[in-house]
Structure formats: C-alpha cells, structure tokens
C-alpha cells in the first residue's frame, strides 16, 4: 500500500495560519506545555521527530523521539534561522519562492548549510509584541512537519 501524500497548503492558507496563531503571552511554562503537547501528538502517531522551541535566542524545550536522527538537529537549526530572519514560517518562505517560479536555495543568496526554507518551523508570535521565537519539528516530510506544528499550536491556543 502506498502512502498518500499530504496536500501542500497555499501561500494564502499559510499566511492565514500565521494571522490566526497568535498567543497572548509565551513563558517558559508555556514552552514546556507546547513542547509536551507536540511530543505527545508525535508519540501517538509514531512520528520519528525531534522538537525544539526557542524564544529570544534561548532554547526552552528540546526532545528527540525514537527514530529521529542527528540530522534532525541540523534541520531544526536551519529551519529556525529562516523564521528568525524572515519573521514567518519556514514553509511559507519556501512557498513564496516557489510561487515566483524559483527556489529559496537558488534565489535567497543565503547559505543552504545555514538556512533551510523547508516546512517545520513556525514563528511564536505574541499579540502586541510580534515574533519572539520559533517552534520547530524535524523528521517527517516537510508538509507534515509544518502541519504537525500548526495542529499543536491550534490545540495549545484552544486549551
């Protein structure tokens, strides 16, 4: 049986996610709660991912689940740097380049060993403040990494 590929969100859908997924605050305790939620969701799906949450240059949460690999750490760092530089989701940045008929790697003029505009890193945005950090997942296909983070943020905001 072949695995069905998850459809990629459009640029407009990605931008709407960012407008909607804004927090009132984000503390160390919130990082623990969001990270734990993500780990729980990933465990239920047997997802071989690593999870990272950074705020203002400081790592607040990190977990590596069974099946994840050291390469996931490098992907997390590269995707998070895209969020820090552009202030929006790593998948949205890559999608904007693709919508222009090019790729991030070809046109950004940034070192691909340092930056990766692949799905899985999403900005932590606080109302009235702006982007203060990033929550990042690595280990699944990029659309699935992105959607896992979005689903976790939706649950976190609803909780």
UniProtKB/TrEMBL annotation:
Pfam families linked to this entry: HbpS-like
Domain of life: Bacteria
Gene3D superfamilies named in the record: Haem-degrading domain (3.30.450.150)
HAMAP family: UPF0303
Membership in a protein family: Belongs to the UPF0303 family.
Protein name per UniProt: UPF0303 protein J5Y05_21615
Originating organism: Streptomyces tagetis
């Amino acid at each position: 049986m072949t695995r069905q590929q998850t459809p990629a969100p459009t640029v407009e859908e990605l931008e709407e996610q960012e407008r909607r997924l804004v927090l009132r605050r984000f503390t160390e305790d919130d990082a623990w709660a969001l990270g734990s939620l993500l780990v729980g969701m990933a465990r239920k799906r047997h997802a071989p991912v690593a999870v990272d949450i950074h705020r203002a240059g400081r790592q607040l949460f990190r977990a590596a689940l069974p099946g994840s690999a050291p390469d996931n750490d490098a992907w997390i760092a590269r995707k998070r740097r895209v969020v820090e530089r552009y202030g929006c989701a790593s998948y949205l940045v890559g999608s904007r380049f693709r919508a222009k008929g090019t790729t991030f790697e070809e046109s950004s003029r940034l070192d691909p060993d340092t930056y990766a505009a692949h799905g899985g890193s999403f900005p932590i945005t606080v109302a009235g403040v702006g982007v203060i950090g990033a929550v990042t997942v690595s280990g699944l296909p990029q659309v699935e990494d992105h959607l896992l983070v979005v689903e976790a943020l939706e649950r976190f905001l609803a909780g």
